[in-house]
Design brief:
The structure is a single chain. The chain is α+β, with helices and mostly antiparallel strands. The chain has 2 domains: about 5-25 and about 285-385, Peptidoglycan synthesis regulatory factor (PBP3), Domain 2, CATH 2.60.410; about 50-280, Beta-lactamase (3-Layer(aba) Sandwich), CATH 3.40.710.10. It is built from 11 helices and 17 strands. It has helices at about 5-20, 70-85, 95-100, 115-125, 130-140, 145-155, 180-195, 195-200, 220, 260-280, 375-385; strands at about 45-50, 55-60, 90-95, 115, 205-210, 210-215, 225-235, 240-245, 250-260, 280-285, 295-300, 305-310, 315-320, 325-330, 335, 345-350, 355-365. A 5-stranded antiparallel β-sheet has the order 2-1-9-8-7, sandwiched between helices. α2 crosses α6 and α5 (about 130-140) crosses α6 (about 145-155). The protein is globular, with a radius of gyration of 25 Å. The two termini are about 15 Å apart. The relative contact order is 0.15.
Length: about 375
C-alpha cells in the first residue's frame, strides 16, 4: 500500500492526530502480568468476547470430546431457523420414540407428547435433556441425521475448523469432537447473534409438568457476573464447562475441558475469568461506520469517499496499555469507481508502540457509482500524472 496523496488525507489525518493526541499519555508503569493460573483441566481457552483476543490457553486447539456442550451447536442451528422464520417458539414438536428412548440426562417428556419449541429448548439448556434435544433436532432437520448435517454446515461457516458433529446431544462417539477454541468461537456467535435467546443460559432452574429441573452450572450461583453457558460430562470427556461473564462492560468467554469434578471445572473457569478481568482491558479504537479517512476517488460521482470499519474495532491489551495504542490507516491507491460498500479498500493497523496488536479492514461507508463521461475522461488524464 502506498501513502495517500497529501491533498487527499490532509484534513482526515489532521483530525485523526487530534483524536490520538486527546488520549491520555501512556501509563508509566503497567500492571505486572503473571502467567495464567494453573487449573484442573486438560485443555482450556479464555477469550475476550468483543475483540476475540485470546488471553490464556492450554492446548486450545486440542481435539476434545464436547459431551453436552454439543448442545450449543444444536441451539445455534435452532436459533437460526427461528431467526429465518422457518420455526417459531410456539410451534410444537412431537416426542418420537427415538427421542423418548434417548440415553443420558433427560427432561422427562413423554412418548407422543406435543410440546412447544420454547419448552423443549429450556429443557435442553437448563436440564441438558437429551430427549428434548432430539425432539427439537427432528423438528428442524426432519431427522436427527439431517439436523447433524446442518450442524456441521453452520460450524464450517463459523470457522470451527477443529469440530465434527455426529449427533445433537453430545453422547459419546469417536467421530464427535471439537476444540476449546471452536467452542469459544461458537459461544461468541450465540451471544452476538441471539441475545434474546442467550438469556435462557442464566436460568437457575426450569419447572415443567411439576418437575423442577436444576441447572448444573454451579457458577451461576457463585458469581453474579456469570450468565451462562453450558456444562458437559461423560466418563471419557471428564467435566467440561463453557462460561461467559460480564463485568463493568467487558465480557469474557472461557471453555474448560477435562476437569476431574463439577467443582473443579467451576473453580478452573472462575480462576480464568478472574485472571482475565484483573489483568486485561478492552479498548474501542473506532466505531462501526466511523469515518477514518476520506481519500481521493477517481472516475466516480464523488471526488472523495469516506472509508471506515464495518464493525467496532475492539482491542484487548494488558491492563494499563490501552492509553498507548495507536491506529494507522491506509488505502489501496488509486481508488477508482465504481466502489461497492462491502469491498475492503484499506486497512486500520493498531500497534502498542512496539508491535501490531490488531488489524481491521476499511470499507467505503457507502457505494459510489461510476461518474459521467467528463468525470471519467478528466480523471483518466489525472491518473496519468499521479
Amino acid at each position: 500500500m502506498r501513502r495517500l496523496r497529501p491533498l487527499a488525507i490532509a484534513i482526515p489525518a489532521f483530525f485523526c492526530a487530534l483524536l490520538l493526541a486527546a488520549r491520555p499519555a501512556p501509563a508509566q508503569g503497567l500492571v505486572p502480568l503473571p502467567s495464567a493460573p494453573a487449573v484442573d483441566a486438560r485443555s482450556y481457552i479464555l477469550v475476550d468476547y468483543a475483540s476475540g483476543q485470546v488471553l490464556a490457553g492450554l492446548n486450545p486447539d486440542a481435539r476434545v470430546e464436547p459431551a453436552s456442550i454439543t448442545k450449543l451447536m444444536t441451539a445455534y442451528v435452532v436459533y437460526k431457523a427461528i431467526a429465518e422464520k422457518r420455526l417459531a417458539l410456539t410451534d410444537t414438536a412431537v416426542i418420537s420414540e427415538n427421542a423418548w428412548r434417548s440415553e443420558g440426562s433427560r427432561s422427562f417428556v413423554q412418548l407422543g407428547e406435543q410440546l412447544p419449541i420454547e419448552v423443549l429448548l429450556k429443557g435442553m439448556i437448563v436440564q441438558s435433556g437429551n430427549d428434548a434435544t432430539i425432539a427439537v433436532a427432528e423438528k428442524v432437520g426432519g431427522t436427527e441425521a439431517g439436523f447433524v448435517q446442518m450442524m456441521n454446515s453452520y460450524a464450517k461457516q463459523l470457522g470451527m475448523k477443529g469440530s465434527n458433529f455426529t449427533n445433537s446431544t453430545g453422547l459419546p462417539d469417536p467421530n464427535l469432537y471439537t476444540t476449546p477454541r471452536d467452542v469459544a468461537t461458537l459461544s461468541r456467535a450465540l451471544i452476538r447473534e441471539f441475545p434474546d435467546n442467550y438469556k435462557w443460559y442464566s436460568m437457575r432452574e426450569f419447572v415443567w409438568n411439576g418437575i423442577r429441573q436444576q441447572n448444573r452450572n454451579g457458577l451461576l450461583g457463585r458469581d453474579p457476573s456469570v450468565d451462562g453457558i453450558k456444562t458437559g460430562h461423560t466418563e471419557s470427556a471428564g467435566y467440561c464447562l463453557a462460561t461467559s461473564a460480564s463485568r463493568q462492560g467487558t465480557r469474557l468467554v472461557s471453555a474448560v475441558f477435562g476437569s476431574q469434578s463439577m467443582r473443579a471445572r467451576e473453580d478452573a473457569s472462575a480462576a480464568l475469568l478472574n485472571y482475565g478481568f484483573t489483568f486485561f482491558e478492552t479498548v474501542k479504537l473506532r466505531g462501526r461506520g466511523e469515518t477514518v479517512l476520506k481519500p481521493r476517488l477517481y472516475k466516480g460521482t464523488e471526488e472523495f469517499v469516506a472509508v471506515g470499519p464495518a464493525r467496532d474495532v475492539m482491542v484487548t491489551v494488558r491492563r494499563g496499555a490501552g492509553a498507548g495504542l495507536r491506529a494507522t490507516a491506509s488505502v489501496k491507491e488509486p481508488l477508482i469507481a465504481p466502489l461497492a460498500a462491502g469491498k475492503a479498500v484499506g486497512e486500520l493497523v493498531i500497534s502498542d508502540g512496539t508491535r501490531v496488536v490488531a488489524r481491521a479492514p476499511l470499507f467505503p461507508l457507502q457505494a459510489v457509482p461510476e461518474g459521467g463521461l467528463w468525470s471519467r475522461f478528466s480523471d483518466t488524464i489525472a491518473l496519468w500524472f499521479r
